[in-house]
Amino acid sequence: MLAYLLMSGIATGALYAMMAIGLVLVYRSTGHINFSHGELFMFGGFIAYTFFVILGVPYFLSLILAVIGGFVLGILSDRAVYRPLIKAPPLTMVLATVGFSFFLKGIARYFWGSMEGGDYVAFPAAMDPSPIPIGSIMVFPQQLLILAGAIVFVVGFTIFFRMTRAGKMMQATSENPTAAYLSGIRVERVYTLTWGAGSAIAAAAAVLMAPMTLLSPDVGFQLLLKAFAATVLGGLGSMPGAIVGGLLVGILESLGGGYVHSGVQDVSAFIVIIIVLILRPAGIFGVRNIRDT
Amino acid sequence: MQALLARRNIVAVGIIVFAILPTFANAYIVFVANLALMYILLSVGLNMLLGYAGQLAFPNAALFGVGAYTSGLLRLEFDLPYWITLPAGAAFATLIGLAIALPALRLRGLYLALATIAFAQAALWVFGHWNSVTYGGAGFRVPPMDFSPLPIDPPTGIYYLSLIIVLVAVPLGWNIVRSRIGRAWVALRESEVAAETLGIDLTRYKAYAYVVSGLYAGTAGALFSALLGIVTPESFDLFQVIVHFCMVIVGGIGSLWGGVLGAVILVGLLEVLRTFRDLQEIAFGGLLLFTVLVVPGGAIAMIKRYLPGWNEPLRRIGKKR
Which has the higher per-residue pLDDT, B1 or B207? Predict the structure, then answer.
């Protein structure tokens, strides 16, 4: 029981971590929290659904196409929404991204909402769904795929961040936008890239998660809250914090759901957010230079 | 000609239209007008918290729900008359508003937004899962209000009750924002440090903002449960949050009359799209986004530019980028 709950907690936690990475990435470089991140996630899932289920493209190709689609969507939304408001106070940006999130949700509902009657569509399993035994635990193949996918994305992302020119530009911009600008980095382009990358990771997370659950236009907000919980727990603005926070939230909710009450699974995220913000707003990793917003 | 369109005249005409509406309009129009009155309350309350005090907080939809559930349940379980259930709903929502204020006072900006959005979702979860009290996800039916000994039927009674409450609440709000409290809110919105150096007790005035907006939201919720006759958790979900935000922003953030205007305009839109949830989301999300991007001051900013007699003191938010 414990091993099984831990396993499923780690798998969902890995997804939350991926979502949280996208949020933190954007927060670190722009100082804004993207309230439409959940809807970008949801949209990525539906892009994959379109390719995989409707057009019959293989799962892994659909995953890649959804990631590309997510990236393009992120860039488009940067042009339309975020860039004009990049210097705006947080209040304005939050209102704009909340508005944008509903706009995306409505569009998704319009196109995909009534596909299978009701708001939910089933995303078929990518592989044989029967659990396989590893040692004494039964593990679902999709859980292994989620873990593998999350590790590949996090490692790939770290390499991109540390090794490539674009990644270093992103780091420089988040450290000090003015200095980055003065050394010839086109800060606005870096921002665009950041929104695009965050959205692409969210899309990947959606495609990994979809076969385990159902897809619906409303799924984004739930994931956004979990990602909020993960970032707040880890320390808003900390990358390792996002990963650790995501895993912790996943494990906590799985254990709570298994041992306490199945309803705990739904509320664990809010409880984590509220308790952490009241007791230790800096989170586990104690981000010291919290932006004063 | 332009002077005829001054705020005083428009408001007077609006009051007269609302007052005589039930004598000639059909039941549906009266229902929509009643919704508009209720949303005016919500919009005025949220505007004080968001627009005047500048607190980026999301508790209003949840407090709206608390008001609706409290008064609806009191009516259903104990068969109490409206003059008890209505104040009880408002009072309990105010109390919860104060309870949120206590932790929220420590938080600012994005952290406040995150904490209060978590609160709103937690409240929604309680509405949907506390089966023994709230009747769970299916909700419950509220017996209609009984206005005897007055000789009026429930819909008309609720309508005029709402109208009377709005006629008290809006001038009350208008006086609050022009009083010492309103000035303190605007000061702390613009700069907490500067406000503190002027001797403004931040904690106290922020708490006032939460309490007042809780009172307005709770009253609106109590009217809502009586008006619809059914209370379900979905009525208070995130879409409700965006409807309230849209009314305040499209009307004009930080402008009480803008909020009133936004509520009246957007109830119409909400009703036209009633059966199309997807189009409602596209319209309200898009409208919120459009206003923030293109007309940060909202409709009231346009009106003020072209018509005299709409000025309000202490209004600047939304212009600064």
Answer: B207
B118/A104 touch (CB, cutoff 8 Å), yes or no: no
Whether B319 maps to a domain, the answer reads no
Give me the number of domains chain B comprises: 1
The H-or-E segment that residue A134 falls in is strand A132-134
Q: What is the DSSP letter of B25?
A: S
What pLDDT was estimated at residue A291?
43
Report chain B's terminal Cα–Cα distance, integer Å.
34
**Residue A163: pLDDT above 50?**
yes
Q: Domain for residue B90, yes or no?
A: yes
Model pLDDT for residues B6-58, shown as the tens digit of each residue: 787 888 888 888 888 888 888 888 889 999 999 999 999 999 998 888 888 88
Residue at A167 is within a domain: yes
The residue-averaged pLDDT of A115-127 equals: 72
**Is residue A222 within 8 Å of A233, Cβ to Cβ?**
no
Q: Spell out which residues of chain A touch residue B293, defining contact as CB-CB under 8 Å.
A: 81, 84-85, 96
Containing structural domain, residue B197: 2-306
- Its pTM stands at 0.87
Tokens matching residue B212: 């007042």
What CATH number does residue B160 fall under?
A: 1.10.3470
Q: Do A33 and B113 lie within an 8 Å CB cutoff?
A: yes
Q: Is residue A267 part of a domain?
A: no
Taking an 8 Å Cβ-Cβ cutoff, which residues of chain B contact chain A? Answer: 50, 54, 56, 103, 106-111, 113-115, 117-119, 121-122, 125, 129, 238-239, 241-242, 245-246, 249, 277-289, 292-293, 296, 320-321
| Domain-located, residue B317 | no
Are B282 and A33 inside 8 Å of each other by CB? no
Q: How far apart are CA A281 and CA A42, in angstroms?
A: 28
Residue A44 and residue A207 in contact, taking contact as beta carbons nearer than 8 Å: yes
Provide φ and ψ at B85, rounded to 5°. Answer: -65, -40
ipTM of the complex: 0.85
Share of chain A above pLDDT 90, in %: 16
Please indicate, yes or no, if residue B316 is contained in any of the structural domains: no
Minimal CA separation from A257 to chain B, in Å = 15
* A109/B238 CB distance under 8 A: no
Q: Name the domain count of chain A.
A: 1
Give the pLDDT score at A292. Answer: 41
The residue segments making up the domain with residue A111 are: 2-217
User: Mean pLDDT score of chain B, rounded to an integer?
Assistant: 85
Contacts of B37 (CB under 8 A, 6+ apart): B18, B159, B162, B163, B165, B166, B223
A186 lies in some domain: yes
